[in-house]
Design goal:
alpha/beta; Rossmann fold; 2 domains; six-stranded parallel sheet; binds 6-O-phosphono-beta-D-glucopyranose; binds magnesium ion
């Protein structure tokens, strides 16, 4: 029986995945990496900042030492922070705040599990920082999705066993992480991209609590 719902943030609660993409695209342009596009960007979703940079450098066959990589990752992050600082609370996807509230009213635990080190800032900006029973962000984990660490930590913080948890994810790496944790997963986006998920819906706000029983 599902007793906890765990939400990814970027691309699930708000369109911050778009801001990550815009910032990486800007960096890729500066580096002359021409084959970075929306399709390749799918591989960056859910993984850490430094792993995302490595993928872009691999695409451009560029090899850099750790110090040079750090400088580029910091630059990308400064652009991303500039974009999110201009966010307004109404940039939360329609129906998501209501869905979370409905889940909690029904006695379900609700957690946030985002690989982003900016997750706490984003939830403050869209004013949902008090809507979760637990928040796990990129500063609290060692291994990036598809490793299940982030979801297992979220489950332990809300004291629910993994098999009673369901994860909402827009990234292939995130769907895999949920399944690796022994949890159910609702994919947000395209059924083709997220074919391993138990159910795929186009928007988080479309989820119907009644469907929990059949998953
Ligand atoms: C994930 C995003 O939520 O966070 C990734 O899907 C991003 O695209 C990762 O790279 C790390 O984010 P940040 O904010 O710590 O650079
Ligand atoms: Mg995401």
């Amino acid at each position: 029986m599902i007793r906890a719902c765990i939400f990814d943030l970027d691309g699930v609660i708000a369109d911050t995945a778009r801001y990550h993409f815009l910032a990486w695209q800007r960096l890729a342009k500066e580096l002359g990496v021409q084959n970075f596009n929306e399709h390749e960007n799918e591989r960056l979703k859910g993984v850490s900042r430094i792993r995302s940079l490595e993928i872009i450098l691999e695409l451009g066959s560029i090899s850099l030492d750790v110090a040079a990589q750090e400088i580029l990752a910091t630059k990308k992050n400064a652009w991303f922070v500039e974009y999110i600082n201009a966010m307004k609370p109404d940039e939360i996807y329609p129906g998501v705040k209501e869905l979370i509230q409905e889940m909690r009213k029904k006695g379900l635990k609700v957690a946030l599990a985002s690989s982003s080190k900016n997750a706490k800032r984003v939830v403050q900006l869209i004013r949902i920082e008090n809507d979760f029973d637990a928040i796990v962000d990129g500063t609290m984990i060692t291994h990036t999705k598809p490793n299940p660490e982030i979801f297992l930590l979220a489950a332990s913080l809300v004291r629910v066993k993994p098999s009673d948890c369901i994860v909402f994810e827009d990234a292939e790496a995130g769907v895999e992480a949920a399944l690796n944790a022994g949890m159910k997963c609702v994919g947000i986006g395209s059924p083709k991209q997220l074919d391993k998920a138990d159910l795929v819906i186009p928007h988080t706000g479309d989820f119907k609590l009644e469907s929990l029983g059949s998953l």
